[in-house]
Write a structure and sequence with these properties.
331 residues; alpha/beta; Rossmann fold; Zinc Finger, Delta Prime, domain 3; 3 domains; 5-stranded parallel β-sheet; 61% helix; DNA-directed DNA polymerase activity; DNA polymerase III subunit delta
């Protein structure tokens, strides 16, 4: 089911007693939490709404809430986050598991248990996980792809009466790595900046949206592969001057070259390769664009030289800036 399906269920009071929410799109997960909270009127939430982090407080309080009927209301909502007992490493006591399984099979009328498993790797062999999977209404909030993020951006801007330049949209996507959640975080600044013109420009994005570290690493790797020594060295100096630790910067650069090599060996769509590597498909798209411009042998050579630079940084008292400059001169 989707968030829209959940809205319809809430509007029509057609609410199952158990939900399992999964996914890794932070903004959508937060929206889901707000929707579940809205089931209980604000004045009744103190008595009929509770949220527990299993990792912090365990399960006993949640079970106690779920075994009692709603207090002068139609529903009680209990949200449970971080349910590590559904993974291979977490567990419940025998009494907790017995109580939870009993509540899943015979819920108290009006009580809703909402389990937020987010992007956890669930152990489907476990008895309790099987029971939840079998009985729960599943709300999957997977990360949006680049096209969906773009559509969401334009829908929001249309509703607010704003427009965005094509170059500005492309740079925004690059700077937030096509993340829907990060795009929503940055949008209020851009809207305030363009309050008079109603037009978000490339300059506004450049001035207001800080590049993700992965985007900075992509830029630096691009300069290295293009052989632009002066620009690469200047960028490296600026990043260090702005507080980026040389070892971390080297690790980001090494990671970017490793990603290029990994993507080069993977067939299939950007989404399939992204899933295999555990990264956003947008990064795969950028990597494939780079691989069309640079010989694979050059990428391998760069990876090995950057790896050697990291070893020297960790084992010798050598100025990192000197090492990077030497790397650029010799690459």
């Amino acid at each position: 089911m989707t968030l829209q399906d959940l809205k319809v269920q809430i509007e029509h009071q057609a609410l199952p007693d158990l939900y399992l929410v999964t996914g890794d799109e932070t903004a959508l997960l937060q929206k889901a939490k707000r929707l579940f909270t809205s089931i209980i009127p604000e004045e009744d939430q103190e008595m009929n709404f509770a949220s527990y982090d299993f990792g912090a407080v365990g399960l006993d309080d949640a079970i106690a809430d779920l075994t009692a009927p709603p207090f002068f209301g139609d529903h009680r909502v209990v949200m449970l986050t971080n349910p590590t007992f559904m993974t291979a490493t977490g567990k419940l006591t025998d009494s907790q598991e017995k109580a939870l399984l009993s509540l899943i099979e015979h819920p108290v009328p009006g009580n809703l248990l909402v389990i937020f498993a987010a992007d956890m790797k669930l152990d489907k062999r476990k008895k309790v996980t099987k029971a939840i999977n079998s009985k729960a209404e599943k709300l999957e909030l997977a990360r949006l792809n680049e096209r969906q993020v773009g559509q969401a951006l334009h829908q929001l801007l249309d509703q607010l009466g704003f427009q965005i330049e094509t170059a500005a949209e492309q740079e925004l996507m690059l700077r937030v790595q096509a993340s829907y959640s990060k795009m929503l975080q940055e949008l209020p600044k851009l809207l305030a900046y363009a309050a008079d013109s109603k037009q978000i420009t490339r300059q506004a994005v450049d001035d207001l949206v800080i590049k993700e570290s992965t985007a900075q690493a992509f830029d630096l790797a691009d300069l290295v592969l293009k052989g632009k020594q002066e620009a690469a060295i200047r960028t490296y100096h600026d990043l260090v001057k702005n507080g980026e630790a040389p070892l971390r910067l080297n690790a980001l650069l090494l990671g970017q070259f490793r990603l290029l090599l990994q993507v080069a060996s993977l067939p299939g769509s950007d989404a399939e390769a992204g899933k295999a590597l555990g990264i956003h498909p947008f990064r795969v798209k950028l990597a494939r664009q780079s691989l069309r411009k640079y010989p694979l042998g050059k990428v391998r050579e760069g990876f090995l030289k950057i790896l050697d630079m990291e070893i020297q940084m960790k084992s010798k008292q050598v100025d990192p800036l000197f090492l990077f400059e030497s790397f650029m001169v010799n690459f």
